[in-house]
Amino acid sequence: MHKIPGMTRTALFAVTMLLMACDQKTSETPTEATTDNMASDQVMKELKTEPLKDFPKTADDPHDIAVLTDYEKRFQEMSSDLEKELNSMRNDENMTAEFVQQRQRDHVKSALNMLKALDLKTEQGRYIQGMMYQYWEHQDKLLNSPQTQAATVNEASENVKGLGKYLHAQEQLERWRLQYQDLAKQEPSSKKVEQ
C-alpha cells in the first residue's frame, strides 16, 4: 500500500467525517434513508483515488519534492495552530460560528496562496500541485457560496468533492519521495504510516 503523511490523512479523514456528521438528520423516513444512502455512496465514490501516474525521472525531481514537502510541513503547522486556537476558544466558550467560518476561509485562502507560490519545475510536481489546488479551490467556493434553504441531499458529497484527488496527490507525492530514498530520510517532520 502507499504511504502518506499520517497527520494529513488523519486531518482530511476527520474533516470528512465532521462534514458528513453535520449533515446527519435526527429523524429518518424511508425516503430520507434512501437519500442518505445515495449521499453516502456518492461520498465513498468521491473518496476513491485514481491509479498513480508514471512520470519520467528528471534532474529537477529532488527540487520539486523538497518544495512540496516544505509546503506540506508549513500547511500542517498552520492547520495545527488553527486547531489549537479553535480548541482554546471552544474551551473558553468564546467561539462564534462567524469566527469559525472566517478562520476556515483564511485557512483555505492560505492553502491556495501557498500552493500558487510554489515554484515547481517538473510535470509531476505541477500535477500534484494542480490536484491539491483544485481541492482547495472547491472548498473556497463552498465557504463563499451563500447559504440556501435548498435540499441537502448532496451536501456531504459536495463537501468532500475533490478529496479523492487530494488524497491521490498525497499518494503520488509519497511514491515520488520513495523513488528518492535519500530525500525521504532527510525529512523527519513527515510522519508516515502504513495504510
Distinctive features:
single chain, 195 residues, two-stranded antiparallel ribbon
Distinct helical segment count: 8
Distance between the termini: 6 Å
Strand order of the largest sheet: 1-2
Total strands: the figure is 2
Percent helix range: 55-70%
Shape: globular
Broad structural category: mainly alpha
Describe this structure in words.
It is a single chain. The chain is mostly helical and 195 residues long. It is 69% helix and 2% strand. A two-stranded antiparallel ribbon has the order 1-2. The radius of gyration is 18 Å and the shape is globular. The chain starts with a strand and ends with a strand. The relative contact order is 0.21.
How do the helices and strands line up, and which of them pair or pack?
Layout lengths: L3 E2 H17 L7 H18 L13 H31 L5 H20 L6 H22 L10 H5 L3 H16 L2 H5 L6 E2 L2
Antiparallel strand pairs: 1-2
Helix pairs in contact: 3-4, 4-5, 5-7
